[in-house]
Structure formats: structure tokens, C-alpha cells
Amino acid sequence: MQGSALALSPSTPFMKPPCRIPSYKLSHLPALTSLPQLHRISSVQRLHWQTAFGTFSSSYSSSFNAEIPASFLSSNSRCDSFKVRAAQPATPGPESAGEASESSGLARTLQLGAMFGIWYLLNIYFNIYNKQVLKVYPFPATVTAFQFACGTVMIILMWTLNLYPRPKITRSQLATILPLAVAHTMGNLLTNISLGKVTVSFTHTIKAMEPFFTVLFSALLLAERPTIWVVSSLVPIVSGVALASFTEASFNWIGFGSAMASNITNQSRNVLSKKFMAKKEECLDNINLFSVITIISFILLLPSAILLEGVKFSPSYLQSAANQGLNIKELCVRSLLAGFCFHTYQQVSYMILQMVSPVTHAVGNCVKRVVVIVSSVIFFQTPVSPINSLGTAMALAGVFLYSRAKRIKPKPKAA
Fold first, then answer.
1. Which residues does 303 contact at the CB level (< 8 Å), separation at least 6?
2. pLDDT per residue over 32-48, tens digit each?
3. Long-range contacts of range 81-84, CB-CB < 8 Å, 24 or more positions apart?
4. Which pLDDT does position 55 carry in this prediction?
5. φ and ψ at 283, to 5 degrees?
6. Which of 27, 276, 317, 411 is the most buried (most CB within 10 A)?
7. Helices (H) and strands (E) in the chain, counts
8. Alpha helix segments (H runs only) across 247-357
9. What does the radius of gyration of the chain's CA atoms come to, in whole angstroms?
10. How remote is the C-alpha of 406 from its chain's centroid?
11. How far is CA 12 from CA 16, 21, 51, 116, 131, in A?
12. What average pLDDT is seen over the chain?
């Protein structure tokens, strides 16, 4: 067995013959009588011999390495170009770590893309089914309460089947969440009132004003001063909504006012949610917070819907409506589908918010509004004038600029 091996690159030229290293064989070694001598043979360390022309490798014991003469480690007359260094321990190459990170990044990107696609698709179907229901069943409070009821059933199933951990709500948390639930209830009710009065595209064009109220309430309630870029992005939003409103064929003051009021309630809810989530000791995660708000909204809206519109879901009323030509089966199916899409798209939205930054989520929400407007115009064959289209495009472009302007952080003031 050879204790020293010389590895030579075949393309290495030599001006002088290489310095020969003595070869140690077990048969030539004297009998070992002590443990330290045995350790000198068994502890092997790799050495690399580098010349100006090539690289050699050799194996020696660690104790043998310590006994190499200093004249051999330094330059001499025959081997003046040789240097000795200990080889580094074998470690995983950066290529394998890079490939693992790339594969995980690709999987995350595909997952996010799929979730954004589901979010948009559920939004499209919700707005279509919801509009169809409100056309033949003009009771927005009852419809909204039914949608909250669908969400409540899905949340109870989620917690019962342990698909998501059930939160433990304290009294202080409940007192904080209650205003959020009231704003959430009013926002969705006002949106359905608007959808019942005007077209889906016009309602969502008005709801593009949300950033304006976000900036307003953040300044009033959180004392946040917007940057010049954020304020500048609000100009095309306000101008575009105004232009679209003046040229809207289905313009209705109730529809316009309720959509604008839904902006106020929804953005006040968002600002209050931000204030609530800032309390680390009391905060819930996004999904559980939304789930608790949905259940409270159903409890709040059900008696209010009965007081406002009466019992419009009793068998006797539905039978009388069927006698007047209403297809009850289609109404129930589309209401269930709208309720399912209503809760699921918001649940997916909160799941996305947990995976991306709020600015990225805002950009996705802007794209979602474009998708909903275009799909509703195509499905319902809504007549749209060129000026109306220009106003809608301006408002949506302003929303996109707003989401980009939020990325720009103000420069810290010099002390």
C-alpha cells in the first residue's frame, strides 16, 4: 500500500524533473510498538503541491506533515517552485444550494401565480352571479346577509375540521374587532346596493377611488403624511372617476352614492385594521381576523335585513315570487354560487396578503379591478363610450401609479 501518491496533469510541461517524494509502504515500516506511532500512520491529511505549471496532490499523516523539514517547505535548489498547503474539507458546492433555492423560488412563483388567477376568477364569477341575483331579487340587505351566512358556514367547517387553527378571542380583542366588523358590513352592503342600481363596470370604476380615502383616513386617524408622489397619483384617479361618471349611460345617484360610501367604509376598516394589527399582544393573523369579522357581520346584518326589507326568504314569499315568473331554483343556485365566490375570493386575498407585501397586493388588486371591469362589459354587453373608457382607464392607471408610489419611502429628515 502506497502512502504517497503523485497526481499529474498530462498537459503540464516541465523545465526540470520534479522533486521526488519518498514513497512509504507498510512493508518497509518498522514494527509499531506504541499507540502514538500507530496514530501517525492512520491520521491522513491531503496535501496539494502547486507549481507554476501544474498541481500535484499527495497523502500524508498529520504527524508526518509536522515533521517535514522546513527546507522542503520553503524553496530550495531543486524544488524552488513548489508550495505546500492543506486541502480544504469537502463542502457542498454552491451550485447545489443555488439549484435548491431556484427550485423553491420557482415553486413559490407558480403558487402565487395560481392564487392570483384563482382570486381573479372568483371575482369575475362573483360579480356576474351577484348582478344576476340582484336584477331579479332587488333586496341587497338580504342578499348580503345570505353571502355572510355562506361565509360563516365555511369558516365553521374550516375550524371544525382543523383546516386552520381556531383563535381564542378575548374581550378586549372583540371590542377592537367590532368596529371593523361594522365597517365591513356597511361596505359590502353599500357595494351590493350600488351593483343593484348601476352596471358592474361603473361600480368598480367608482371603487377605484379607494386610494384617495386611504390617504385621507391615514392622515386623519394615523397621522401619516403622504409623499408628493402619492398625492400626485391621486389626480388621475379622481379625474378619471369624474370623467367616467359624467359619461356613464346607467348613471344613478343612489348607485353612485352607495359605491362612494362603500369606499369610505372599506378604507376606514382597512385603516382601523392597521391600527389593530399594530398591537402585537392582541393581533390575530389575517385569515382569522377576516373570519371573525365575517361571523360578526352576519350576526349584525341578519336582523337589520329583516327590519329593512322584511322576511324575503320565507317559503311563502318565494312561492308567491315563483307564481309571478321567478325561477326559484336558478335564484337559489346562483345565490349559493355568489356566496361561495364572495367568501372564497376574500379568503384567497388574505392568503395572498400573508405571502406578499401590501404594495404587491395593491398592484394585484388594481389588476383585479381591470379584469372585473373588462369581463363584466363583455359578459353583460355593456355599452361603453370612448370618453367613458378613457375615464375608466385614467382611474385605473392612477391606482397603479398609487401602488408604485407607495414603494417610494420619504427621505429621513436631517437631525
1. none
2. 444 444 344 444 444 34
3. 81/51, 81/52, 81/53, 82/19, 82/49, 82/50, 82/51, 83/49, 83/50, 84/47, 84/48, 84/49
4. 43
5. -75, 150
6. 276
7. 15, 3
8. 253-277, 286-309, 315-323, 328-355
9. 36
10. 17
11. 12, 18, 10, 58, 80
12. 77
